Amino acid sequence: MLSPKNYKVIILQLKTDPDYNKNLNRLIKYIKANRGANLIVAPEVCLTGFDYKNFNKVADFYDIAIKRVLEVVGDEIFIFTIIKRENGGIVNQAVVIHNHKILYTQNKYKLFRDETKYFLAGREEDFLHFSINGVKFGIIICFELRFKELWKRLEGVDIIVAPSMWGRPRKVHLEVLAQALAIMNQCFVIVSDSADSDMAKGSLVASPWGDLIKDDRLLQIEKIIDLNEVTKVRRLIKMR
Fold first, then answer.
1. How does strand 77-86 pair with strand 39-41?
2. Which of 21, 47, 137, 219 has its CA 20 to 30 A from that of 125?
3. Which of 229, 225, 173, 239 is nearest to 38 (CA)?
4. Can you state the angle between helices 55-72 and 20-33, rounded to 10 degrees?
5. pTM over 0.85
6. Domain 7-236, classified CATH 2.120.10.70, yes or no
7. What letter does residue 59 receive in the DSSP assignment?
8. Phi/psi at 180 (nearest 5 deg)?
9. What is the pLDDT of residues 50-76, one digit of tens each?
10. Phi/psi at 149 (nearest 5 deg)?
């Protein structure tokens, strides 16, 4: 049973500073400022970026960061990705936090360029659906948005969340792919992209009808969505 109208989504479109603690403090400030939101999404690896020169330091920061984020996230659902050690290597992991608990994790499967040198890849079979308060979610991380076989694994969800650090030269690709995924899977797609100077600032909400809400000038995009639109479009346009 979907939640009705007035599902409040906050998309953060933040820069990543070389100072990890500065990024963490800013993120916590935004979470606290958005009490009452249903969903808050932050960009891919927004706390550290892909700081390969200091990769051990990046991985060590996980324990500090996750403890503080868990303390602050209450009724809202918060989704971001963070770099951590796992299974003898390092992964880029999407984390879903709600009521001070980690409810779901998913390691990035499709790695982009230099990421293949530094990260263990996740597995395609780990692309799962999860539900919170009657809403069914799926996650797709940045570069993974390009792979149609992953779109199929996320069929049937109400909201697909895409934390991203998507490059500026391919900005149009990000927007078109997110819009197409929303139309094809008949769901909402929420993209949170980095605002670094070389990034697309392509944060957006794509509706199941293909409508886009975006604004590159903002550090935070706020949108109230009606999840009943998912049911409406699936009844009107039957695809299975």
1. parallel
2. 47
3. 225
4. 20
5. yes
6. no
7. H
8. -65, -40
9. 999 999 999 999 999 999 999 999 999
10. -65, -25
